[in-house]
Specification:
Shape of chain B: globular
Mean pLDDT of chain B: 76
Number of strands of chain A: 11
CATH architecture of chain A: Sandwich
Structural class of chain A: alpha+beta
CATH topology of chain A: Immunoglobulin-like
Radius of gyration of chain B: 19 Å
Low-confidence stretches of chain A: 1-16, 69-77
Number of strands of chain B: 0
Order of helices and strands of chain A: HHHHEEEEEEEEEEE
Strand content of chain B: under 5%
Number of helices of chain A: 4
Low-confidence stretches of chain B: 108-127
Shape of chain A: elongated
Oligomer: heterodimer
CATH class of chain A: Mainly Beta
Mean pLDDT of chain A: 82
Structural class of chain B: mainly alpha
Largest sheet of chain A: 6 strands, mixed
């Protein structure tokens, strides 16, 4: 974190490109074009990122996606369960087809009366309150690019925290 | 409100007509003042950089997409801490690399990761999608030669190219190489690449 924050270190790490010949630069330019041809950015990725960062509050912490088998103890949770973690919080959500969309059943650990917001691209977001045990449910989540935003219930005096996940494609 | 003020004063986007480093600098300044459109422009311009850095770490496409999103989301609360616009590309490169490593070490092995190398090492006679992309024979030969370089050389040249693209060079930092050794190593890598490319018309 400190490394990423300080541009001084990068200034010092700057590499001079002066000793490259014109021939070198041409070859590097060819490679540059080639990278995008060989391994193009997935078509909708930019759009998904733009949706994911279009948040009211930018002071957010990012929960990382733990792919199905990665957490000991949640095996057998099923393929329709996803888990995100950030430092001291785990977000588990299972989704089941319901109506034209999905029903979400989730669990926040540790529990608390947190507010869970489900954002779906092209739709207004839905919120649900978790119970003291951290359980929450959201009905009628439309299909589409979906993101969870968890507003942590803060104890008196503590700073409000907002946790966001990368998008899911449902 | 900052958005309205800014647009109202200038009548156009502050990055309009700018390219490269100047454009990103203008976007970053505007984004820090609350201009959301500026953030979208940065995402559109620099996601290829983040993508290729992530993929160069050997992540498959599905995991790489997660990492790219994570990197941009993580940037949000760092916006105010990036004093110099040129620090943005460096931050993106280093964060993408770190997040990719993290994704690789957290149980990702069970999914039999497909390394970037494997995806493109499709023999020419197999009509894979990667080969379709490489219509040009020169491209195909250059790529084949590139993939024969050592892993170290591939990473060094990839980061050199991407850093040049972002007009900022964090190669030494990202590779954890002493600054003085980058130049000579890169020279050798480029010489190898040229020799591979020239040898007998290049490999199929």
């Amino acid at each position: 974190m400190s490394t990423a924050d300080g541009q001084h270190e990068f200034d010092e790490a700057g590499v001079d490109m002066d000793n490259l010949t014109e021939q070198d630069l041409l070859l590097l330019a060819e490679l540059d074009v080639l990278f995008d041809k060989v391994d193009p950015v997935p078509a909708d990725l930019v759009e998904r990122v733009q949706f994911a960062i279009a948040l009211e509050d930018l002071d957010v912490e990012v929960a990382r996606w733990e792919r199905a088998e990665e957490l000991a103890g949640v095996r057998g949770a099923g393929p329709n369960t996803v888990t995100f973690t950030v430092e001291d919080l785990t977000i588990m959500v299972s989704f089941a087809p319901a109506g034209a969309g999905y029903r979400f059943d989730g669990w926040l650990v540790p529990g608390g009366p947190h507010t869970v917001e489900v954002r779906v691209a092209g739709h207004s977001s839905t919120t649900a309150e978790a119970d003291e045990g951290g359980r929450f449910a959201v009905d009628d989540v439309p299909k589409g690019t979906t993101q969870l935003v968890v507003h942590l219930a803060n104890g008196t005096g503590s700073r409000p925290r907002t946790i966001v996940t990368p998008t899911l494609m449902l | 409100m900052a958005v309205d003020t800014w647009d109202g004063l200038t009548g156009h986007d502050p990055w309009e007509g700018l390219t490269g480093h100047d454009r990103h600098a203008a976007c970053l300044v505007a984004a820090r003042a609350g201009n959301r459109k500026a953030l979208d422009v940065l995402v559109a311009d620099l996601t290829p950089l983040v993508w290729h850095v992530t993929r160069s770490q050997g992540l498959d496409k599905v995991h790489a997409e997660d990492v790219v999103q994570t990197v941009w989301l993580a940037l949000l609360r760092h916006l105010d801490r990036l004093q110099q616009p040129k620090a943005l590309a460096a931050w993106l490169i280093v964060t993408a690399r770190r997040e990719a490593q993290r994704a690789k070490t957290t149980g990702f092995d069970r999914e039999t990761p497909v390394a970037a190398e494997d995806l493109v090492d499709i023999p020419a006679q197999v009509d894979g999608p990667e080969q379709h992309a490489l219509r040009d024979d020169r491209d195909r030969r250059l790529w084949a030669a590139f993939k024969q370089l050592t892993d170290r050389c591939q990473k060094l040249l990839t980061l050199t190219v991407l850093s040049g693209r972002a007009q900022y060079d964090a190669v030494a930092e990202a590779l954890e190489m002493p600054r003085g050794s980058i130049g000579p190593t890169r020279g050798r890598c480029l010489t190898s690449l040229r020799e591979l490319l020239d040898s007998e018309g290049g490999p199929q």
